[in-house]
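Intended use. Records like the one below are meant for learning the mapping from a protein sequence to its folded structure. Do not use them to infer anything beyond what is encoded.
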Amino acid sequence: MKRDYINQAVQYLVGEQETNDPYRLARQMGIEVDEHPFERIKGIILDIAGQVTIILNSNLPERLKQVVLAHELGHLVLSPGGHGYFWIADHTLMESKMEYEAHMFAVELLTWGEGPEEDETLEQFAASVGVPVDMIRYRVFGQL
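Structure written out for the chain above:
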């Protein structure tokens, strides 16, 4: 099952790097993180002469930048040759397999070791871990 593959990738990365913080992970992996005031793009991966850089939209709130960075790291870990992906739309009618997997990776990474309390709503759990509620469903239900 794809979910197991993604969970294993996150588990390996967190174990190897001893963190689930996407900014620390990027730094420890030699990935530069920069920002630019894009109009529609949330994040993009560039590989210029072997230096991988993830550029985040500087107009996003800090917590969403963390989610986008985790998403872009998901692309790098799950599809290492696929540089140049970018995340534009908040919602689309159809989501590509690569975007779906990167969303799952981001949620698994950002919620690593965390789970909702017995009486906690999905919205409360999402707020406590800093992940948009529409994305937290990737972890809780495996899909939207």
